[in-house]
Fold this sequence. Notes:
By secondary structure, the protein is an alpha+beta fold. The chain has 4 helices and 10 strands. Strand 8 and strand 9 form a beta hairpin. The radius of gyration is 16 Å and the shape is globular.
Amino acid sequence: MPHILTLPRTQAPALPESGCWSADKLDFLSPPYWQSRQVAEHDERYLQPIPYLLLRNAQGQIWCYQRTGGDARLNGRCSCGVGGHVDDGDENLTPPFNPELTLHRALLREVAEELGASPADLHQLHFQGLIYEGLSAIGRVHLGMLFTAQWLPHQAPQPVAGEALASLGFHDASKVANNPQFELWSRLAAQHLL
C-alpha cells in the first residue's frame, strides 16, 4: 500500500477555522513526510495535502459531479473538485523534493484515473491557493491545494466507469458558492473564484 504525503501541522501556514485563500509558495511542504493513509486519516497532528482541481469551460463555468460511493463521509454530496491524495509514487525521483512537480504529477494521475483525461485535455493548469476547514473530522486532517484549468474537449468530462462519480455538467460558480448540496471545499473554492 503506498504511503501518502503528509504535513506536520506545526509546519503548515496559519489556518483559519474555514476558508480558501490565495497562495503562491508551497515551500512549507518541504521536507516531505510520507505516512500510511490509515494512520494519517486519524492523526490531527498531520495534514494531508490534497490537490483539488476545478475544471472550467470556455465560458468560465465549473464542472460539477455527485459522489455515488467512496468515502462514506462524502457519499451523496456534490462537488466541483477533482483530486485526491499524493502518493509516494508521485514524487520526483531526483532530489531535492519538488512540491510543485509532485502535486502536478498527483493531480494528473487523479484526473486520468477519475476522468480518463490526459494533460492535453487541460489548458492553463494553475495553482490558486489553499482550502481548509477545521469544522469536521475529515476537514481537520486535510489541506486543499486549489488548482484551476480550462477543459479543452467540447464534451463535458465523464467519469471513468467504476468511479463513484456522476457528472452534473458545467455550472456557474455562483450556483455552487452557497449551495448546501455541495461539500464545503467546493463552496469555499467557488466563493474564492467569484
